[in-house]
Every structure is written in structure tokens, then in C-alpha cells.
Inverse folding.
């Protein structure tokens, strides 16, 4: 895939104050203590019951913390973080006018560097570009780049990339890239009933060796004692129509899941994400059914 850039909907929450770092360490699922300025991690804010509240990326920026989440969830993240504040020196703010530029594709790191947008060498590390941060983003098929910060700085990064002939694509194409990479989107593939292991979020967003964090009991119990009842999978239609979101997934005559994301454009290859019962093995053939149509599909593992 050629290198492209997009402006997917994202929100940024900035946490400041003398107690900000230990406060976040006590709440978020990832071990933040080893992270220094310029480093970051994928992390989760869970509910006390261990379900997903907000899925986000954490960046350590000096003594401050930036948290980047899917669009529409910044206010929820800020509200949840504020709710637990009791006698701590912590400020929680959602800066206005901030955005994210996402650069994806084979060679994204090299193209960004060629445009003068320096990219760190390790995943989730970040460096300064004007008043924004340039983050190296783990992405199946090859790392990508996010530029996060005030709109003027993000615009400057986009202009630099555009000058090297990197095309900006619309939301529909970016969604197709996201679905193909098996990257879940909150509010679409995950929600307030999601257990981290169902979408494999625990692989790089949960520390099982740190001290307590919010919702730890359920996540750790599943890790040590059992499994979840469903898993997020790629669904690759092989015959029939293009399944819409919400399509039923059938194995024989039994309903075994639901489609959560789908590539809608007829100009792009048909592909979908959905939750499938744990007993349905990858490479199994299933039927996707919706009002007015159906398609045969193959269940696949999320790309790694």
C-alpha cells in the first residue's frame, strides 16, 4: 500500500499537576512508571467492573501526560479521570482545536522523515514538531506516524508531507485501512460492554505485573483462569453481497456473532470486523446475513 495520510476523528486530553503521574498510574491499565519524557504506551481506562471506559494512547511530555483517544470520547475520558480526583494536585483539560494527522502505508516512517518530520525509532516514542508531538505508531504491516497537537502545527506537518506527494485520503479510505489492519475503533468495534481480552487489547495495553489499577480484578482473573466467550475477528467475504454493520454471523443454523465494522465503498475490497464465538476457529467459513442480502465469508485472525 502506498503511503497516505488522513485526519481521523481523535480527541486529546492533557493531564497536569504535581500528582498527575502517580494518579494516572493508579487508574490506567498500563505500567507508566518506567516511561520517561518522550515515551508512551497503549493503555486503557476501565470501569471498576473491568469493562472498557476509554481506549487511549498515553504520551509522557515532560511532567505532563497527553492521552489520545477516538473522536467523541475525550469528554468521557476527562469526566472519568476527574470523577476519581480526591485531594490530589491534578488538572484535566481537553484543549480546543487540537487534532491528529495519521500517516500510514509501507514506508510511512521513511516518507515522514524525508519530509522533515522526524520520527523516533521505537513504538510509542514521540518527538517535537513545532508545538505538536510526532508519535511512532505500531500498525500491522508496518509502523505508522501520528502528529498530535494544535491545529496549526498539525497543518504544518501535513503541508510538509503533501510537498513530497503524500496524498491525503478521506475517512472512508482510512476506515478501510483500519479495518484491514484489524485495529478496533471505540464506539464501533468496542464499547462499554467490551472486556479487553475480547478485542485483544490486553496484549499491549495491560500490565499484569504492576500494582492495582481500576478494573484489574476481572482482567487478571480472565488471564489466569479462563477465556472470554467471543473474539474480534476479520471477516473476509468470498461470495455474495457487501455486509453492512450489524449483520448477523451464522455458522450452520446457529448465530455466532455480529459484524461491527465494514468497508462500505464499492470501490474498495469488501472486508469486515466482527465478534465471533470463541469456538469458531479461524479459517472457518460462515454466513453473513442482513435484511435483503447475505454473503459467505472466512473468519480470520486479526493481523499482528
Amino acid at each position: 500500500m502506498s503511503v497516505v495520510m488522513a485526519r481521523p476523528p481523535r480527541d486529546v486530553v492533557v493531564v497536569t499537576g504535581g500528582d498527575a503521574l502517580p494518579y494516572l498510574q493508579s487508574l490506567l491499565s498500563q505500567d507508566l512508571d518506567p516511561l520517561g519524557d518522550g515515551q508512551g504506551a497503549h493503555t486503557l481506562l476501565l470501569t471498576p467492573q473491568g469493562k472498557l471506559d476509554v481506549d487511549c494512547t498515553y504520551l509522557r511530555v515532560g511532567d505532563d501526560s497527553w492521552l489520545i483517544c477516538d473522536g467523541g470520547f475525550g469528554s468521557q475520558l476527562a469526566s472519568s479521570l476527574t470523577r476519581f480526583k480526591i485531594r490530589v494536585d491534578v488538572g484535566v483539560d481537553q484543549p480546543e482545536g487540537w487534532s491528529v494527522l495519521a500517516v500510514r502505508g509501507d514506508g510511512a516512517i521513511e516518507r515522514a522523515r524525508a519530509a522533515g518530520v522526524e520520527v523516533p525509532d521505537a513504538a510509542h516514542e514521540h518527538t517535537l514538531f513545532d508545538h505538536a508531538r510526532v508519535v511512532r505508531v505500531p500498525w500491522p504491516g508496518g509502523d505508522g506516524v501520528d502528529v498530535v497537537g494544535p491545529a496549526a502545527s498539525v497543518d504544518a506537518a501535513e503541508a510538509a508531507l503533501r510537498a513530497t506527494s503524500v496524498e491525503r485520503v478521506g475517512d472512508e479510505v482510512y476506515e478501510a485501512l483500519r479495518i484491514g489492519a484489524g485495529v478496533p475503533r471505540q464506539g464501533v468495534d468496542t464499547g462499554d460492554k467490551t472486556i479487553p481480552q475480547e478485542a485483544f487489547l490486553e496484549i499491549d495495553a495491560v500490565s499484569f505485573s504492576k500494582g492495582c489499577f481500576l478494573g484489574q480484578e476481572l482482567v487478571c482473573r480472565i488471564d489466569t483462569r479462563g477465556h472470554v466467550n467471543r473474539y474480534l475477528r476479520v471477516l473476509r467475504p468470498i461470495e455474495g453481497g457487501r455486509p453492512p454493520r450489524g449483520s448477523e454471523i451464522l455458522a450452520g443454523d446457529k448465530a455466532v456473532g455480529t459484524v461491527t465494522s465494514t468497508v462500505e465503498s464499492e470501490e474498495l475490497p469488501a472486508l469486515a470486523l466482527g465478534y465471533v464465538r470463541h469456538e469458531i476457529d479461524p479459517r472457518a467459513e460462515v454466513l453473513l446475513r442482513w435484511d435483503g442480502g447475505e454473503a459467505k465469508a472466512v473468519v480470520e485472525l486479526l493481523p499482528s
About this structure: The chain has a mean pLDDT of 96. The CA atoms of residues 184 and 291 lie 25 Å apart. The helical segments are 20-27, 74-83, 108-114, 151-162, 171-181, 202-205, 216-225. The radius of gyration is 20 Å.
